[in-house]
Amino acid sequence: MSFVRSERKCIEILRLLKEYQEPLGAKRLSELMAEHGFTLTDRAVQYYLSYLDDMGFTRKVGNRGRVLTTAGISETERALVDERIGFIISKLEKLAFKSTFNPETGTGNVAYNLSYVPYDQVELVSKAFDEVIDAGLAFFSSYKIVDNDPRVPAGHSGFMTVCSITMDGVLQRKGIPVKMAFGGIVGLNNSKPLGFHDLIGYRGTTVDPLLLFINAGLTSIGKAAKTGNGTVLANVREVPDAAKDSVEVIASKMREMGFKFPVTMGTGVLNVRPDPYRTSIVSYSGMNLIGNAYEKGYSIKTEIGAGNIPYSVFDLP
């Protein structure tokens, strides 16, 4: 087998093993790769796995499947970074497509992020989340605590928070083409947004922009929630200018269902580059909840875009 010709498939296998962080067998890997446009039989995947074993990048865990070795983790991080550009937005767009929420009936699925924290920090993290919601800096006015999700480690509780990509799914189902353009940090003064300090385009990054801002310590969400002054996370979406009135009607219906957007809409708003043919929709991110908990030093881990779940699981205040 030529590794040069098959490199993209090898990298995809390594990426999946890193993403799931649990043993995966050839059958499951074949299914996951098919979701990303790689059509391989179980036997073909097994062939690649044997090669990766020989390279020292993977190892078998009994009959459960393969996991990455230390060398495999390092190789995944540095191998063809350009292959991973756009992965985040592709994942979010997939969740948007699967979001079936209907703001008129309050039914259907929404996209969500999954976080988990140690048992002894659940109440503290809940309080941190509530601070953001009460200050009007969240995307949605509720969250769900779960204890029976297999992705949540022992000794931890999970938090499901609604992902703002849900909005994209709603707009698409109404026939409005929408583009998730940027993630950024907005400066607030007396609870009023002044403008973006920084923006990162979703289509040119290998990591989620908002998670990057949180980890870099560039937010002051807790301060903003308490005093009205600080920096918080927000997203910028773009729709055709002719769709602005329709978006406003949809946003009004979604606010009745507990959603909190938009912050503002228009061309060139909050120092976003102007486009005479497109309207920018600025919304606070659901990641502000997670960011506030992170700022307080809590041991919170988050999977962005963890899946889709019925809207009805969230209890509105």
TrEMBL record:
Domain Ribonuclease R winged-helix as annotated: residue spans: 11-75
Gene3D superfamilies: mj0159-like
Pfam families reported in the protein's UniProt record: NRD1_2 (PF01995), WHD_RNase_R (PF08461)
Domain NrpR regulatory: residue ranges: 85-314
Signal peptide span: none
PANTHER family: GLOBAL NITROGEN REGULATOR NRPR
Protein name per Swiss-Prot or TrEMBL: DUF128 domain-containing protein
UniProt organism field: Methanochimaera problematica
